[in-house]
Every structure is written in structure tokens, then in C-alpha cells.
Design a protein that fits this description.
Elements (H helix, E strand, L loop, with lengths): L2 E8 L3 E11 L2 E11 L6 E6 L4 E6 L7 H16 L3 E9 L10 E2 L2 H8 L9 H14 L4 E6 L9 H4 L5 H5 L9 H14 L1 H4 L2 E7 L3 E7 L2 E5 L20 H9 L5 H10 L2 H5 L7 H6 L3 H25 L4 E5 H6 L1 H10 L9 H5 L13 E4 L4 H13 L4 E2 L1
Parallel strand pairs: 1-6, 3-14, 6-8, 9-12, 12-13
Antiparallel strand pairs: 1-2, 2-3, 3-4, 4-5, 7-8, 9-10, 10-11
Helix pairs in contact: 1-3, 6-16, 12-14
Length: 399
């Protein structure tokens, strides 16, 4: 009998999940990945094996199942897949852990209550992250659940990198810079020890570039500074999010344009970023790179400009730069974006091998580059699985 751990990453309209099995006494390997998309409209359940083969698919028509029923579908299908093997834990990505939760934790009623109190810090994320925990507690009350916080990795940032210049009463209430994509950065930091040990303990900036995007400055594998702050709106231009913006713009939108806070929220989170600058063409970088439209080109230009700008700023936080890592969907699969960003960083001594970059090889810097440049696929689900097992006391590492 083998043991297994299931991971969940739940959002407002989808539930992503993965299963990892203990393929040997101390090694975890991916069994499958799946998703329930369209949970608020037309649910679509599908599962792909580790090699991408389709293992299951289902669409609902007519009366739509509620969230609890969808979770039961995922858990039930997983248990049928495992047959005689045993599901021993479920790990959950929790976007915000606030100022107090700096490591993964076993879910308890007290922890759930504490996380509910953090909802004002991430109202678009935390309720959706907690929904699967509550649903699983109903259908499998004895199954261990572990909360893995996307903000935890950044708790090593110095106070000067977390503090806003606001009255201290607001800082005491939790208004500070937290940073996000921590599970991704933690995975990259661990991978660096294996693939690039010569820079793993040095000054490294990782660029997590996807629909959500950020950069993180690491020294000896620990977060020193990052582009996202109080919310996941800050920093880089993103698919539909604005990135860094003068707070006065928000005041203008509310006071002069008469928009409500909810309307401003909708603009900043869902109607801005690449989608807005491209004139509504797309928030997908692949579409924008293929387009000849001037607005699409301007959106790409702005995205690259902000990547280079943030990397320059974080290099100052580190006092220099030894290594640069590109990861996530755009970072791993868009050579043109990497090349253009690195061209703007030439003043730092960044030089890339264009042929290696076009092939998406692991090392893309040229031999003469003063900065080692890498492309490393991230795996937040593997990190969650690792944390889940560590938290319940099962020694294992991801294969």
C-alpha cells in the first residue's frame, strides 16, 4: 500500500488539484493534475496524467452542482484512482497568511477562524482558498489538511522592505508589504541548490512571469525584497491587473469620476494590465506577441519595461546580482520576453546566448555574462505536497 497527498489551489471560478504518490519510501512523484473550471457557470472537470494523457473528463448540463458536490467529485475520483493506496493528507494554497503565519500549518478550527479574520487583506482570494478546506472537512472529517501560505516565504524580508510610510496604527492593523508567489519562489530556491549551486547562496532575482507576475530578490535562498506588496495588485504589469500605480489615481477615480470602491476594484483587478493597454485585444502574451496591432506591441513594451525596472530596483536591494531566473508560463515559454528584458539589463552585465534562449534551455546566459541567467520551471503544487507531508511528519521529497 502506497501513501498519497492531494493539493488544491482554489480560485473564484476554478479548482486546480494534483495528486502526488510516495513512489518509494521517501520520494514523491506526480500522479495526475486536474481542474474543475467554470464552477460558477458551466462546470468542467478534467484530469491529466503525469505525461499529459487524459484520464477523466466530465461536463455538467442542466442543474449545476454546488461547490460541495464538485469537491466530492474530485475526492471520490481520486480515491477510486488510488484503489488500495491511501490518501493521507490534503495541502491547500492560501494566498494570504497575514503577519503571523510564516510556515505551513495543520488546519484546525482555530486556524480557520484566524484565516477568516484575514479576509479583509485579500477578499478576492482568501474565501475561495478556504472553501475547499471546509468542504473536505464535511466529506472526509478525519483527513489531515495543511494550509500553505503564499506570503510565508517573504517573512524573511527586513522591516525596511515591508513598511509603508503610513501612521503606525495601520501597520499594527496589518497594513504592510507581504509579497506573494512565495510557494513558487521557495520551489525555485530549492531547485537552484541542485541546478546552479554556484549562485544558490548568492544574490539571485527570480521573475515569476505569468498572468500574475512578480519578481523576488533572494540572498542565500531567502526573500529579501519583492515587487508585490500589500496585495497582488502591486509591482509588474499583469494580464488584467495594473501593477504599481500612484494611489492618487484611486482617489481620482472615486472622487472625480464617481466610481464606487467595487467599481475601482473591478478596474484594477480585471480590466487593466495587458488587456487594457492592448485596447482589449487580449491578456494572453502569446496573442499579443503574434499581433501586428500597435496597441498589442505597446502592451508588450510596457510589460518588458516594468520587468527590467523592477529587477534594477531589486538589484539595489541585494547590493548586486549574481543570478537571474525566469519561471512560470511567460518566463518559461516566451523567449522574446526574456531576450527583451535581458537587453534592458545589459548595464548589469546580463548577456544571453540567443540560440540557447530560443531553445528554452536551462542556462541561457552567454559565457561572458557577469550574471548567470536560468530558465527553471516552477511547481507550486509540488511545494504544497512537500509541505503537507513535512507538516504531518512524513519524511519525503519531490522527485
Amino acid at each position: 500500500m502506497a501513501d498519497a497527498v492531494l493539493t488544491f489551489n482554489a480560485g473564484s471560478s476554478s479548482i486546480k488539484f494534483s495528486l502526488f504518490e510516495l513512489s518509494s519510501p521517501d520520494r514523491l512523484s506526480l500522479a495526475f493534475k486536474g481542474e474543475v473550471e467554470g464552477i460558477d457557470s458551466a462546470p468542467h472537470f478534467f484530469v491529466h496524467g503525469a505525461k499529459g494523457d487524459v484520464l477523466a473528463e466530465r461536463r455538467w448540463t442542466g442543474a449545476q452542482p454546488d461547490f460541495q458536490a464538485l469537491l466530492e467529485t474530485v475526492i471520490g475520483w481520486t480515491e477510486n484512482y488510488l484503489e488500495n493506496d491511501r490518501l493521507i493528507a490534503v495541502g491547500h494554497r492560501i494566498v494570504h497568511g497575514g503577519p503571523d503565519h510564516d510556515r505551513p500549518e495543520l488546519v484546525t478550527p482555530d486556524l480557520l477562524a484566524a484565516l477568516d479574520r484575514l479576509t479583509p487583506l485579500a477578499p478576492l482570494h482568501v474565501p475561495h482558498n478556504l472553501a475547499p478546506i471546509r468542504a473536505i472537512a464535511v466529506v472526509r472529517p478525519k483527513l489531515a489538511q495543511v494550509a500553505c501560505f503564499d506570503t510565508a516565504f517573504h517573512h524573511t524580508m527586513p522591516i525596511v522592505a515591508t513598511r509603508f510610510a503610513l501612521p503606525r496604527e495601520y501597520e499594527a492593523a496589518g497594513v504592510r508589504r507581504y509579497g506573494f508567489h512565495g510557494l513558487s519562489y521557495e520551489y525555485i530556491a530549492r531547485q537552484l541548490r541542485a541546478v546552479a549551486p554556484e549562485i544558490a547562496q548568492g544574490r539571485v532575482i527570480a521573475a515569476h512571469l505569468g498572468n500574475g507576475a512578480s519578481v523576488c530578490a533572494m540572498r542565500d535562498g531567502r526573500s529579501i525584497d519583492t515587487s508585490m506588496g500589500f496585495t497582488a495588485l502591486d509591482g509588474l504589469v499583469m494580464g488584467t491587473r495594473c501593477g504599481s500605480i500612484d494611489p492618487g489615481v484611486v482617489l481620482y477615480l472615486e472622487e472625480e469620476r464617481g466610481l464606487s470602491p467595487k467599481e475601482v476594484e473591478d478596474i484594477l483587478y480585471r480590466r487593466s494590465g495587458l488587456l487594457a493597454v492592448s485596447g482589449g485585444i487580449s491578456c494572453d502574451m502569446r496573442t499579443l506577441l503574434a499581433s501586428e496591432d500597435l496597441h498589442a506591441k505597446e502592451a508588450v513594451d510596457l510589460f518588458v519595461y516594468h520587468i527590467a525596472r523592477e529587477i534594477g530596483a531589486l538589484t539595489s536591494s541585494l547590493g548586486g546580482l549574481d543570478g537571474l531566473v525566469f519561471t512560470a508560463g511567460i518566463g518559461e515559454h516566451a523567449p522574446e520576453i526574456r531576450a527583451r528584458a535581458c537587453a534592458l539589463l545589459k548595464w548589469l552585465g546580463v548577456e544571453i546566448d540567443m540560440e540557447a534562449n530560443d531553445r528554452n534551455t536551462a542556462l541561457i546566459s552567454s559565457p561572458g555574462s557577469r550574471v548567470s541567467v536560468h530558465v527553471i520551471p516552477t511547481d507550486e503544487e509540488a511545494m504544497i505536497a512537500q509541505h503537507a507531508l513535512d507538516t504531518i511528519g512524513v519524511p519525503a521529497s519531490v522527485a
